[in-house]
Design goal:
Layout: E1 10-13, H1 17-28, E2 33-36, H2 40-49, E3 65-68, E4 79-82, H3 86-102, E5 112-117, E6 123-124, E7 130-131, H4 133-144, E8 147-154, H5 159-163, E9 168-173, H6 177-187, E10 192-197, H7 200-223, H8 227-247, H9 258-269, H10 274-283, H11 288-292, H12 300-314, H13 320-331, H14 335-343
Length: 353
């Protein structure tokens, strides 16, 4: 396995379900992988038992996956997948770059590092500053004086299904086409097929926005509504995602692809979706605090609903579904009342964005 001194290989920062699944897949693709866990205790348990029972039970880590809780061990990797929730993303990137810098001249390091985001969210400091994960990486790299390439991986992908080697297709986006193509060649094999894109903005906005729509879809299921309602919600949710994405500089075709419609359909209908399951419980009358107590994993749409609504306000974009989810999640609005308000909105032309 590549360590700080010999370079190469892939490091995956984040031992949640998706990070573990990507580490397992990369190892199956024949690449040595370092999987970093934030908690020493959890990392030691994972290294010893070789199964992530908390986030991805029943799937054994291949021998090519080495587990660590010391970020310095990842410093020699030239490709680093950062697979943590968006609200903790900046801290992990900063810790990694600091760990890399701390090695100084002790070990030869790659001149450039490719940071690949596996997060699906928007950072907001609630002072009108919004950052996609690409922005976060650029800012932290500039502060640390490290040359980086950036890419993001997104699409309809449940971790458990990829780990079980069920066919999965995603998109890898980078502003530099050759970076996306290199990652595509490196990670596409077996159960995972990657398509490339240069629309980083569109892919990142789609990834964040679809989680909020998935909560709404779960609310409908929790209320006992039918297929008509779900289909309408997904369709109008796609409009909402595209409206915000275009306002931020994304391209329309992106939202018809794996990082848009594909991911939206999966999270709105799949039984493994944490965001949809959060919505189901809300629709059944449980509070957000009750739902989140003791649950492993994070429903990204909960936090990102606020950031996305603030971003939409800043860009003067209307997000009626997201607005109602914020009302339910944070302001005590009853789910049935939110649906009634959505149905009672001013009538419009369908194609209007």
């Amino acid at each position: 396995m590549s360590g700080a001194g010999d370079g190469g290989g892939i490091a995956v920062l984040g031992a949640g379900a998706w990070g573990t699944a990507l580490a397992i897949h990369a190892a199956r693709a024949g690449t040595p992988v370092l999987l970093w866990a934030r908690s020493v205790e959890f990392g030691a348990k994972l290294a010893s038992e070789r199964v992530n029972e908390r986030y991805l039970p029943g799937v054994e880590l291949p021998a090519e996956v080495r587990v660590t809780w010391d970020l310095r061990q990842a410093a020699g990797s030239d490709t680093v997948l950062v697979v943590v929730p968006s609200h903790g993303f900046r801290a992990v990137v900063r810790w990694f770059l600091e760990a890399r810098a701390s090695l100084g001249d002790v070990a030869p390091l790659p001149e450039r590092v490719t940071l690949v985001s596996g997060a699906k969210g928007i950072e907001s400091d609630h002072r009108g500053h919004f950052r996609r994960m690409s922005d976060v990486c650029a800012e932290e790299a500039a502060s640390a004086a490290v040359e980086i390439d950036f890419a993001t991986i997104s699409g309809p992908s449940f971790a458990a299904e990829l780990a079980a080697e069920l066919p999965t297709a995603c998109v890898v986006a980078s502003e530099e086409a050759e970076v996306a193509e290199r990652l595509q060649a490196q990670l596409s094999c077996g159960a995972l097929r990657l398509y490339t894109s240069t629309d980083v903005v569109g892919v990142e906005i789609g990834a964040a926005a679809k989680n909020v729509i998935a909560i709404a879809a779960g609310v409908l299921d929790g209320l006992g509504y039918g297929s008509n309602t779900r289909a309408a919600l997904i369709t109008r949710g796609l409009h909402e995602m595209m409206r915000l994405g275009l306002a931020c500089g994304g391209r329309p075709a992106t939202f018809a692809g794996l990082g848009g419609l594909g991911d939206l359909v999966l999270t709105c209908t799949g039984g493994l979706s944490r965001n949809r399951n959060t919505g189901i419980e809300l629709g059944r009358g449980r509070t957000l605090e009750e739902i989140e107590t003791g649950r492993a994993g994070v429903a990204e749409g909960v936090r990102n609903s606020l950031a996305l609504l603030e971003l939409a306000t800043d860009r003067q974009v209307e997000l009626p579904i997201t607005e109602q989810m914020v009302e339910i999640l944070y302001r005590g609005k009853k789910p049935a009342a939110a649906i009634r308000d959505l149905m009672g909105r001013e009538l419009k032309v369908e194609s209007a964005l």
